[in-house]
């Protein structure tokens, strides 16, 4: 996903090598290049600005330390600031003190929520949990069926309204799903919700109603890393309309620029918990800011 950003940063930083001392002009030139690379990768402008300011301040004020030459020092600063943008420490899932832990998924249609529900369930199972999926996307044709397929693949049960039962209220399904999960002693409930193609108030209201009905321990905002700058706008809209405790980036295997996804943490202040990198169940992992930064910096 971040190949071209990675290449550009690598070649910019390579230009510094061999310099015994870095003048302020060297730092300015490097920062200009980094700025362009980030903007070209679609990283949101305010995030780029803040990032560059921090790097400039630190690089210009840096004492030449014995162990690192000036170029290495700049690389270290860029790396640390990138880890910071991505959230710093790895943020683990929060579990409820009393089971079940309720995890609600929210995001636009096509973001990858249903796929993620299966991946998360499979991952939780591997960690020794006994998750159940609850199908609250009653809008998209086949969404319930798709979740059932995903659940089967992940080896976890799915709570869904009976076909033709006339149950059409996702809030009611969510509520009953939790009751059912508790009765069957599942320790994690993953609630899949409906998305729309764009932000609309009805969608936000429904998600907010589900949130109020099930009091989730985590609300994960699922966002397609390939939608460019819209990722930031969508995140902001969901934060205002529903609120969320964490972010899941999907489609990081794509070849789009993806920098907007790198901005979501900084813009919303919410940590990225997981990343999806493909359509298969196992194309999924905990998001580690430091590993991602190393990958980007090559
Ligand atoms: P939902 O509408 O949010 O529930 O989205 P879906 O889970 O149905 O996913 C939409 C499409 O994106 C499907 O074709 C998925 O197979 C695909 N998809 C989901 N996650 C990923 C991913 O990480 N990488 C790729 N390449 N495709 C994905």
From TrEMBL:
Enzyme Commission number: 3.6.5.4
Compartments it resides in: Cytoplasm
Main location: cytoplasm
Transmembrane residue ranges: none
Residues that, per the record, bind GTP: 107-114, 192-196, 250-253
Keywords noted in UniProt: Cytoplasm, GTP-binding, Hydrolase, Nucleotide-binding, Ribonucleoprotein, RNA-binding, Signal recognition particle
EC class of the enzyme, as a word: hydrolase
Reactions this protein catalyses: GTP + H2O = GDP + phosphate + H(+)
Segments forming domain SRP54-type proteins GTP-binding: 271-284
Domain of life: Bacteria
Similarity remark: Belongs to the GTP-binding SRP family. SRP54 subfamily.
Job of this protein: Involved in targeting and insertion of nascent membrane proteins into the cytoplasmic membrane. Binds to the hydrophobic signal sequence of the ribosome-nascent chain (RNC) as it emerges from the ribosomes. The SRP-RNC complex is then targeted to the cytoplasmic membrane where it interacts with the SRP receptor FtsY.
Assembly notes: Part of the signal recognition particle protein translocation system, which is composed of SRP and FtsY.
Domain notes: Composed of three domains: the N-terminal N domain, which is responsible for interactions with the ribosome, the central G domain, which binds GTP, and the C-terminal M domain, which binds the RNA and the signal sequence of the RNC.
Protein name, entry field: Signal recognition particle protein
Originating gene: ffh
